[in-house]
Specification:
The chain is an alpha/beta fold. Helix content is 48%, strand content 12%. It has a five-stranded parallel beta sheet with strand order 3-4-2-1-5, sandwiched between helices. The chain is globular and about 55 Å long. It starts with 21 loop residues before the first helix and ends with a strand.
């Protein structure tokens, strides 16, 4: 199994080369770095084309790499029921759900799954008790703060879909920073649906298309399935359709 180690390439010059002009030394160093970067990109490309990402681990017995889904979607439901069955407050259930999500992200990364979508907080969940909603928003912020550096280091790209305007300003800022910090990562794309629902996505897509018609960018006759598909927030990934829904 292929693994990558990212390291700088030192340029060592012998005593016989001490008379080389500094600009020539710079060109040598630059050429070596460029060559290494080109080789690394090519190896990553070949790796991905072969169906696995750099640094993947061997699959458990019974799983075949060619049969692994590219996109897995998970509905994070049942946290409160889990807590109640154990005589715990609902917050403990949500915290357990956050820990389970971290394990799921780790497995997805190790097993070569390209996209993991988690439906963490439905648009319809805003009707829940205020105290529970505030706890969830605080939990989201805490998870992002504690995990963002680890996720970035592990090559995970974070994307968030949903009506972010309803989220606290502090959480919106954290989400924006997390997306910007990880936008160039490619090992696993983690899509977190917060304040999201299918109805919300269809409505916002229709509004966007209507505005484009109003602005003369497209004609009514141009609207078809592909136009609507392009406006959905779930179109934020190379593999928008989940192969497995849990």
């Amino acid at each position: 199994m292929l693994s990558f180690r990212w390291f700088p390439i030192p340029v060592q010059l012998s005593s016989q080369s001490s008379s080389i002009h500094p600009k020539s030394q710079l060109r040598v160093s630059s050429s070596l770095h460029n060559a290494a970067a080109t080789a690394l990109r090519q190896e990553v490309k070949e790796c991905l084309n072969d169906g696995f990402a750099p640094g993947e681990e061997a699959l458990p017995a019974g799983l075949r790499r060619e049969a692994m889904p590219r996109h897995v979607a998970v509905i994070m439901d049942g946290n409160v029921r889990w807590a109640r069955r154990r005589g715990l407050p609902s917050g403990a259930g949500h915290q357990a759900g956050a820990r389970a999500l971290r394990e799921l992200v780790d497995l997805s990364r190790k097993w070569g799954i390209r996209v993991l979508t988690v439906f963490a907080f439905s648009y319809d969940n805003w009707v829940r008790p205020k105290m529970e909603v505030e706890f969830l928003m605080s939990l989201f912020e805490g998870v992002i703060k504690s995990e963002i550096n680890n996720l970035a280091r592990e090559g995970i790209r974070i994307s968030v879909i949903g009506d972010s305007s309803k989220l606290p300003d502090s959480l919106q800022k954290l989400i924006s920073d997390a997306q910007e910090k990880t936008k160039d990562n490619f090992r696993l794309q983690l899509i977190v649906a917060v304040s999201y629902s299918g109805k919300y996505d269809v409505v916002q897509a229709c509004k966007s298309i209507s505005q484009k018609v109003k602005d003369g960018l497209i004609q009514v006759e141009d609207i078809d399935e592909s136009v609507i598909e392009q406006e959905l927030e779930t179109k934020c990934t190379e593999f928008p359709y989940p192969d497995l829904l849990i």
